[in-house]
Amino acid sequence: MIATPDRTPLSREFFDRPVLDVAPDLLGRILVRTTPDGPIALRLTEVEAYDGSDDPGSHAYRGRTARNDVMFGPPGHVYVYFTYGMWFCMNLVCGPEDKASAVLLRAGEIIEGAELARTRRLSARNDKELAKGPARLATALGVDRSLDGTDACTPEDTPLRMLTGTPVPSDQVLNGPRTGVSGDGAVHPWRFWVANDPTVSPYRAHVPRRRRS
After folding, report:
1. Which of 6, 14, 30 is nearest to 111 (CA)?
2. Which GO terms describe its molecular function (predicted)?
3. Cα(6)–Cα(165) distance, rounded to whole angstroms?
4. How does strand 101-112 pair with strand 6-9?
5. Cα–Cα–Cα angle for 111, 112, 118, nearest 5°?
6. Please, are residues 79 and 87 in contact by the beta-carbon 8 Å criterion?
7. Which of 28, 51, 125, 202: disulfide with 168, CB 3.0–4.6 Å?
8. Where are the alpha helices (DSSP H) in 3-113?
9. Quick check: 1 and 154 in contact, CB under 8 A?
10. Residue 169: CB atoms within 10 Å
């Protein structure tokens, strides 16, 4: 029998740890997105860790800016960024304040509200693809920059909340290089995912973007 996922909100202390401890521990946790159109719940199956000033792949590697300000704390808040001029991606801030570490939410399984998610992800061929990739995840949940800075670990009914869920056993967690990261940051095996889960996105190495002539 499959145990019912724990719906208790994750504590601030859960996020106030090193990013490489938080990232794999987020697998199996539940993210709830509440909107006027209804709620969507997602079970996390793939994440990536980014370690601030110690990590060339991090948005905070070169210091604090208006764009990445939320990454500097406090932990348990949502950092949303806009990429490639068309997509939003969301992260969960962790570690002590001013450390600027965060976990990118790369993929998950929609466990509630699939009907609403389908209206936002019309190109998905099936429900396993609704949140298969960080931009798809944000699109399915209706996440944009207006949610940047949202506190995700409060008991109140906020737009985004992280719940305890059912943690994935360590022997079912795999790790490898992060997707699309270039340079010195490409070597870090800081992508974590649930083994054999069909909602996990495929790995893609970084491909330099060519300038238009």
Report:
1. 30
2. hydrolase activity, acting on glycosyl bonds
3. 5
4. unpaired
5. 95
6. no
7. 28
8. 12-15, 19-25
9. no
10. 11
